[in-house]
Design a protein that fits this description.
single chain; six-stranded antiparallel beta sheet; four-stranded mixed beta sheet
Length: 196
């Protein structure tokens, strides 16, 4: 007797998703200039309702923000074609040493994101939950799923100088001279917000 093993696969309309990740720079005062920060989300597993691997599924994206305080990066392109549990790794991309923002300590924490997709009553797909590190993100359509915080510590430098006055006694001009130091970028242009 010939027996044929048949597997039936349901075809669904796709379900899409976008997620926000928040960057915060903590420290007082805030940095005088904004810096660029990058994050990566990458899929680590995709399982159907029976715990089997969902073949062909993968996701990886890198997004960037530029800020000296707080900003959100939006990750789009999450597309689902069948119910399942989709797991991702979220982390900040730490720059090379020569490209790091001055005074910034980067966040090296890796976060686990889990998206649950189920079949709805109309045999379509719906996202039923999004969690980050085991905690449910209630309003994942509007709120960031995670906040990655970097610490800014201002670097202090002391400058010393000598005023030389020719042709007069320096004591006669005590307190009459003022000096100012302005910060400049790599092009020699003055950076606003810094004076000493």
């Amino acid at each position: 007797v010939d027996e044929t093993l048949m597997r039936f696969v349901n075809i669904y309309d796709k379900e899409t998703l976008s997620l926000k990740v928040r960057k915060e720079v903590d420290g007082e005062p805030k940095p005088a200039t904004a810096s660029e920060y990058a994050f990566t989300i990458e899929s680590t597993s995709a399982k159907d309702s029976e715990g089997r691997d969902i073949e062909g599924y993968s996701y990886k994206s890198t997004e960037k923000v530029t800020t000296s305080n707080t900003a959100d990066a939006t990750f789009g392109g999450f597309v689902y074609y069948q119910p399942g549990t989709y797991t991702y790794r979220l982390k900040e991309v730490e720059p090379e040493a020569d490209k790091k923002a001055p005074g910034i300590t980067y966040d090296t924490t890796e976060h686990e994101l889990v998206v649950c997709v189920e079949q709805d009553k109309d045999n379509g797909l719906e996202i039923t939950s999004v969690t980050c590190d085991g905690k449910k993100v209630v309003d994942y359509l509007n709120d960031p799923v995670a906040t990655i915080t970097n610490i800014y510590k201002q670097t202090t430098i002391q400058f010393a100088g000598t005023k030389i006055l020719n042709g007069a006694a320096i004591k006669d001009y005590a307190g009459k001279f003022k000096f100012q130091i302005n910060q400049a970028d790599e092009n020699g242009d003055e950076i606003s917000g810094f004076k000493s």
